[in-house]
Amino acid sequence: MSNDPRADFRVERLTDADARELATLHMQVWRDTYVGMLSQDYLDGMELEPRIAHWRKRIGVTSAREHGAADQDDGVRHRSRLARHLPSGRIAGFCMIGGPRDAEAPVPQELGALNVLREFQGTGVARLLVDETLGDRPAYLWVVRENLRAQAFYRKLGFAPDGGTKRDETLECDEIRMVRPAAPAHR
Prior knowledge:
The chain is an alpha+beta fold. The chain is built from 6 helices and 7 strands. The strands form 2 sheets. The chain has a 4-stranded antiparallel β-sheet, sandwiched between helices.
């Protein structure tokens, strides 16, 4: 692979035709990443067909939000993108951003999902996805407390824990909130 991820990956919009591959990728990333961090029963119980249906719905909703948000002036970007590995044609990962899902969000933009297959981690594709979806906007995210690798990556992007925590009873895990504030205004 090249030192420049743009040589090996193309960032694209999500389409309904990607639903099966995205569902498979999402399950694989979670099973590779979260063993010992999330409920093993949850991880073992994930089934492909319901995940495909979930992704089809998610693609439709995010596409509609993305197109509808173009006229909004609230500063919130709704964008979902995947990265396709050009040599293999496979989806390497995806990123989704949108408005906050929390009532008391520290900033109005949330990085809701970033998942990259293990074989493509360390290639620069995760940063490429964040750059193409979020850019340098202020944002916040939730990350599993034990996921130190993800936390280190987010720190490189300017995110820092702000003390926010929550418990996900379904996944049986604790999460911490990380925030990237607005860049200081230049004088």
